[in-house]
Amino acid sequence: MLNYKNNDPYIEGTSLHDLVKVCATPFYVYSQEKIINQVNKTKEILGNNIFYSIKSNSNQAILKLMNSLDLGADVVSVGELKRALEAGFNPNKIIFEGVGKSEQDLLYAMHKNIRLINTESLEEIKLLDSLATEKNKVVDIGVRLNPDIDGETLSKISTGKKTDKFGIEIDKIDKIVELVKTCKSLNLVGISCHIGSQISKIEAFKNTFNQMKMAANKFIESGINIKHVDLGGGFHVKYKVSDPDFNIEMVKKELDNCFTQTEYELSFEPGRYLIAEAGITVTSIITKKNNGGINYLIVDAGMNTLIRPAMYGAHHEILAINSNSKEFIDYTIAGPICESSDIFSRDIKLTKQKIGDLLVIKNTGAYGKVMSSNYNSRPLPSEILVNKDNYAIVFSPEKIEKIIEADIIPSWL
Ligand SMILES: Cc1ncc(COP(=O)(O)O)c(C=O)c1O
User: Fold this and answer.
1) What CA–CA distance (Å, rounded) separates 57 from 366?
2) Beta strand pairing status for 116-119 and 139-146?
3) For residues 31 and 176, what is the distance between their CA atoms, to the nearest angstrom?
4) Could you read off the pLDDT of 103-118 as tens digits, one per residue?
5) Is it true that the peptide bond before 26 is cis, omega within 30 degrees of 0?
6) CB of 285 within 8 A of CB of 332?
7) Last residue of one domain, picked from the residues 269, 290, 318
8) What is the pLDDT of residue 156?
């Protein structure tokens, strides 16, 4: 995402050093141009029915941009639903999924007349029917199916195996049909699935498409008028140089092979693929040390800033920015958090670094800031959106004093 002018790093036409002058590290930077290009490429290949999975990056500025690019929104909580509405998404282009929606969540979604509420259990279908009946409404719903497919991704981001908590097992279609036929106030019009994130094997998509086609046919044969088949997200992003190349055109090829003429509309709900590579995290080196022969660089971003390495063992490339040194050293890059798992990368070769130098953690546009926390009572990272030689700070964190103020001391203390 960085380009260089006279050895100075730029995001689009904006100097990274200028951003460091106006915003304290650690912060996230997103390139608007890169997001637009990736969305347009995805739409060109997969068609216009793309529902951006806003869990990957739900900053209001990003949502406004995604909405302006004519994407729909895929939300997994009422908070995300409110974000999508606030950013201007048409309710008719919002789908609401999530394995645990409360009565209040369902009532709110019903009230907002969104496109589809995707149910994830037989119990949820029953609850939604009773709520809709009470409110005298007829609600369009989808069912998220669990196709029992191993996406062969990190175990912590696999969602499509029979034993995962998501969706309703695909071999329970008869039970779903039987139940929805008794529901007075629900219209089952869609099926969806999502087998996990960071899926690189085209075979996994092919198997998913075949399963979903079989499922759609089964519903239709049972008299259910399926209008929407949502094939999930999960497209792979190349975080490591050694990662396999992922070709979205191959997904399209399998899609066309599987679904020839259909009576229903096909859609996708990617998150990571649309925005991961359009973001970086900028961090400064606080201090250096050698412990047991390991050269640690302790940076001001921690697992509270970007949790993916600590939580999933995920890899992000790290670049050195300031150094003119020709000497290369093996460094372990660690955050300041009091946890041994607060490590971004071990034994990577960088030019010799000094305290105050900047490092860039690459490909952090998705599942970065959204998963940040105030752990160790550190502020959340800021976010900046760059548009050519223009930029805006699109998130500015609460000061620690405000965070402290939110705690309430009981009268007996
Ligand atoms: C239901 C659902 N849809 C879509 C996505 C988006 O996945 P990704 O960001 O890998 O495309 C997720 C993320 O895990 C999800 O849970």
Assistant:
1) 6
2) parallel
3) 44
4) 999 999 999 999 999 9
5) yes
6) no
7) 269
8) 64
Q: Where are the alpha helices (DSSP H) in 222-289?
A: 248-258, 272-275
Q: What is the pLDDT of residues 287-343, one digit of tens each?
A: 999 999 999 999 999 999 999 999 999 999 999 998 778 899 999 999 999 999 999
At 379, which amino acid appears? P
* Pocket of ligand 1 contains residue 120 by CB under 6 Å: no
Question: Is the bond preceding 397 in cis, omega lying within 30 degrees of 0?
Answer: no
Q: Atom of ligand 1 at shortest distance to CA of 270?
A: 11
Distance 141 CA to ligand 1 centre (A): 19
Q: Is the CB of 345 under 6 A from ligand 1?
A: no
Q: Are 196 and 157 in contact (CB under 8 A)?
A: yes
Residues 348 and 216 both lie in one domain: no
Alpha helix ranges (H) inside 235-374:
248-258, 272-275, 308-312
> Is the domain of 336 the same as that of 205?
no
CA–CA separation, 265 and 206 (whole Å): 18
Residue 42 has pLDDT above 90, yes or no: yes
The two tokens of residue 145 are: 């199916």
CA of 78 to the centre of ligand 1 (A): 16
Residues 101 and 247 in one domain: yes
How much distance in Å is there from the Cα of 377 to the middle of ligand 1?
A: 29
CA distance 287 to 299: 7
258 is catalytic: no
For position 152, what pLDDT does the model report? 72
Q: What are phi and psi of 206, to 5 degrees?
A: -60, -45
The CATH number given to whatever domain includes residue 103 is 3.20.20.10
Please check the confidence at residue 262 and state whether its pLDDT lies above 90. no
Over residues 210-225, the mean pLDDT reads: 96
Ligand 1 centroid – CA 85 distance (Å): 19
Q: First-to-last CA distance in the chain?
A: 52
* From 183, 193, 258, 338, active-site residue: 338
Q: Which domain holds residue 185?
A: 97-269
Atom of ligand 1 nearest to the CA of 273: 11
Q: Does any ligand 1 atom lie closer than 6 A to the CB of residue 368? A: no
Given a contact cutoff of 8 angstroms between Cβ atoms, the answer to whether 366 and 56 are in contact is yes
187-196 per-position pLDDT tens digit: 999 999 999 9
Confidence of residue 155 (pLDDT cuts 50, 70, 90): low
> Of 251, 269, 287, which residue is a domain's last?
269
pTM, entire model: 0.96
